[in-house]
Amino acid sequence: MTATPSTDPAAGPSGLPERSRRVAEALAAAGVGAAIRVLPDSARTAAEAAAALGCEVGAIANSLVFVCDGAPLLVMTSGAHRVDTAFLAERLGTGPITRAGAQQVREATGQAIGGVAPVGHPAPLRTVVDTALEAHPVLWAAAGHPHTVLPLTYRELLHLTAGEPAPVTVD
User: Fold this and answer.
1) Whole-angstrom Cα distance, residue 4 to residue 16?
2) Residue 157 CB-density burial (10 A; 0-12 exposed, 13-18 middle, 19+ buried)
3) Backbone phi, then psi, for 79, in 5-degree steps?
4) Parallel, antiparallel, or unpaired for β 60-68 and 97-99?
5) What is the pLDDT of residue 44?
């Protein structure tokens, strides 16, 4: 696992912040050799990440946490659109899906909004992976910190998260 050196005072010997080191460990355990990249500026939004990486906003795999039937639901969605929670709930056959608050996100993932990775959480989360992401040969996801990202393929994202592929908005 390689990393671009960090200027973050919380970075350890690997050059990665602690939360990103947990993500790196989860990647290694899953046999995914994606290299976490440390960005000089924050990539809290899909637009910021796409600008920093020089890619389409649709290739950004946003990690959004919702609450569904009393449990956290991680939705990996394309940065090019918003999750239609009513559509997704109907598609999944669940009760209403609501956006998790900042504290709920941290409790479920161990990570802060703007840096939530697809993996590296205290416990596995039910995950839905937006089928719109499949159109991009390389996806970029947060890696546990607002300044870290990692490249993945759609198949790697499904494998890592044990995610259910599904559209998350009406096209």
Assistant:
1) 8
2) buried
3) -65, -5
4) antiparallel
5) 75
Nearest Cα neighbor of 117 from 31, 15, 49, 47 is 49
| 8-30 as b/e: b if 16+ CB within 10 A | beebeebbbbebbbbbbebbeee
Beta-carbon contacts of 90 under 8 Å, excluding residues fewer than 6 positions away, are: none
Three-state DSSP class for residue 63: strand
- Among 2-11, 27-36, 58-67, 100-109, which is the least confidently predicted range? 2-11
CA distance 81 to 10: 33
State the burial class of residue 169 (Cβ atoms within 10 Å of its Cβ: 0-12, 13-18, 19+). Answer: middle
Query: Which 8-state DSSP code applies to residue 70?
Result: T
For the chain, the residue count is 171
Does the pTM of the predicted model rise above 0.85? yes
**Angle made by CA atoms 145, 11, 53, in degrees to the nearest 5:** 45
- Give the number of C-alpha atoms closer than 13 A to the C-alpha of residue 121, restricted to the C-beta side: 25
Q: Could you tell me the two tokens for 83? A: 């999750």
DSSP lists the bridge partners of residue 151 as 140
